[in-house]
Description:
Layout: H1 5-9
Amino acid sequence: MTLCPIALAAGCKKCPAFAVCPLKSVIGDYKEPTDKSGKGHAKKAGGDAG
């Protein structure tokens, strides 16, 4: 539920305090992007090969 007035009007990413806001996912509309391409933070299967 979005409670922040800036998130209601323009969205979290357009807020001037977006970078420092600790509550953007609690009272705002921000959702962390998910990495569906298999790249990034995904762990490799098989362990250490060396």
